[in-house]
Every structure is written in C-alpha cells, then in structure tokens.
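Q: Give me the 3D complex with protoporphyrin IX containing FE.
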Amino acid sequence: MTTALPGTAERVARFPFPFAADTYRYSTNVEPARRTVPTAAGSWGDRVLDVDAAYAAELELRREVLQRDPTRCSQLPHMRVAAWDALMTLLPELAATYPGAMSLQQRGDRWLWRNDLIGSSTSFVPGDEDSLPGGPLRLLGSQIQEDVVLLDQREGSLWADAGLVTFAADWSMGFDVGMRFLEVHGPVPRVHEAGVVQRAEQFLMRLQPGEQYRRTNWTMTVDRRLDSSTETYPEWGRDRRLVVDDPALPDRLHLRVEVQHLLRLGVSNAVCFLIRTYLLPLRELATVPEWRRRFAAVLAELPDDMADYKGLTLYRGAAVDWLTAG
Ligand code: HEM
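A: Here is the predicted complex, encoded as structure tokens.
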C-alpha cells in the first residue's frame, strides 16, 4: 500500500536529513527537542508533533492498518494511566502547535477535542474508558502522524509496555510489548558491545517530568511504504531484490528517517517515545547536491553488519551507483 504524496518542494525543504558527516555509526545521539536545524534545503525540528501535507492520508492509512491488525495497538493493563497521560499531554501539545485548527476544551467533567484539519470532534472524560470507545491510544493515533510507545520504569529498567505503532521499520509492536528496553534492542548490532543502549536507558531513566529530547534514526525503504512492520514482511520483503534491476530504482528507493522524541510524562512517570517517519525518494534527495554526495558516501562506507541489519545489502550498491553517476 502507498500513501498520497505531499508536494516535492515541501518534502525536500522539511526533510530531516540525518547525516552530519560522510560516515555513520550508532551513538546515543540525543539532543533537546524543539531546536530548529537548518539543512542544505530548508529546516526541520522546531516542533514535537509535526503535521504535513500527508496528514490526512497517513491517518487514513493508520486506520486501515489497525482495522486489519489490531495488535499494532498493544497495551498491558497497568499502562492505563500512562495512556491517558499521553493523550492529555499530546492533545494540548497539538492544539498549541496548530491553534487555528485544533482545540481541547474542558466542559465540566468532559473534555472536547476538535480538529478542523480532518473534521473530527470527540468528547471524553479523562480516565474513564467507557467515555472513549477504543481508548486513549487509539484516539491519539487518529490525530497525530507519529507512532507512540510508552515505557514503564520499574526494577531499574524501562519496559515497552504499551504502544500504537503502525509504521514500524521492520519490527513489531505486538511482538515487543512487555519487553525490557535492552531486549527490544536485542537484534541491533554493535550497540550492546559499545554500551550505546545501556547509556541510552540510563539517560532515559533520569529524564525529569516535562523534559523533552529527540534523536534521529534512518534506514531505507522500497516505495513509499510506511507500514513495513514485521507482520507485513511477505508484502514488501522481495521488493528489496526486485528493485535492484528496476529502471525506476531512484523513484522507488527512499531514505527513511525517523525523528524520535523522548518525553517524561508528568502523571504516570512513563517515558513517551514518539516516532515520526519521513520518506524521501533518491530522485528528490539528489536534487540537493550536498545530500546526494553525502548519502552516497555514507552508504558506500557503511559496515556490512549495519547494512545487513538495516536490510540494505541487496540494493545499496545499485543506490550508490545511481547517486554517484552523472
Ligand atoms: C536514546 C534512546 C535510544 C537510542 C540511542 C536507540 C538506539 C537504537 C538504534 C541504534 C537502533 C538501530 C536502528 C537502525 O539501524 O535502523 C534502534 C532500533 C530500535 N529501537 Fe531504539 N533507541 C533509543 C530509544 C528507543 C526507545 C525509547 C524505544 C522504545 C521501545 C526504542 C525501540 C527501538 C526498536 C523497536 C528498534 C528496532 C529493533 C529491531 O530491529 O527489532 N528505541 N534503536
């Protein structure tokens, strides 16, 4: 399944190009949220929740994915308070970012959410599941393009105990729910020996209520496919091979960047992890000469184990050839 494209100009201008050098290695790359980052084509990063031209299309895609596979929204029973906390933190955040189009108002016990961008309005009583069919995570996921994971902190660890993730890059919320932070990162090469995940967990466990940080992560995806969850692998896995000899390779291969926000929620003390996915086809990326050169260099130099983990092995040579030709 593919999503309607927002305009090329906007997509390039707001793309969070993630490479600060010609080589890439994993690190605990966190920085404070809301800082604007200038790029060779524009800028990104001034907000925590980002609505763009693909908003309605991506929300519709999420609705369809959830309808087919409800396990993309998974929540252990003890995460009820955290899920409400996430809703009551992020709806006001969204309304503050888009005040003309969205609002959250209290009327007695009930709160009224209005979103003119997609013509939706809902009222609910915070904490009362009966007042909100589907629950708080489902409502949240119907209003933001970001995927959400909520981590409980106990026994000296973080636990991925709830989440609504429809746009996973080759992992599965249904599979990971209930896992410790270190276990979630089990398949990632290098990060355990290098202490990257351990340091990240220590950092996250020290986050104070209201503190907001972010990081980027990247991989590549064939076609504009947001839903590349483990569950749908049979639909997209073979495209990695088929794209290599396809003349449409520069239009089909996308740099996939996740802007991930990390917030401590004030009521539940849960860590809220937001994953916003941006996809840019190589052909559009190459309109920015600095990006074209740098991405080719990063891809060519990337160690094999990292390329394998990211699923790039079959087509990275073809991608580098195209980026460096002409
Ligand atoms: C500072 C915080 C974090 C750091 C430094 C970090 C680091 C990483 C790295 C380096 C990867 C490999 C990505 C790739 O090569 O494509 C990864 C994957 C992943 N991370 Fe994190 N991460 C952080 C926070 C989180 C949080 C809060 C969650 C929430 C549960 C999370 C869930 C995942 C998942 C599910 C994967 C994919 C694992 C798989 O292949 O099954 N990360 N992370």
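A quick observation: The chain has a mean pLDDT of 96.
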